[in-house]
Design a protein that fits this description.
The protein has 49 residues and is an all-alpha fold. It is 65% helix and 0% strand.
């Protein structure tokens, strides 16, 4: 089974979670990255993101 780039997205999420404890800038960037797909799905009505 071939791994794709999106199989490793959890690493970026974990990185922002850990870095958010040390610097508030990473926490804000992580928050935006987590909520952007949700906002696009609600506004667009599909999986646009």
């Amino acid at each position: 089974m071939k791994k794709h780039w999106y199989d490793y997205i959890w690493i970026y999420s974990l990185t922002y979670l850990i870095l958010g404890f040390f610097n508030i800038l990473f926490a804000w960037i992580g928050l935006i990255c987590f909520f952007a797909p949700l906002i696009f799905a609600v506004v667009g009505g599909n999986k646009l993101y």
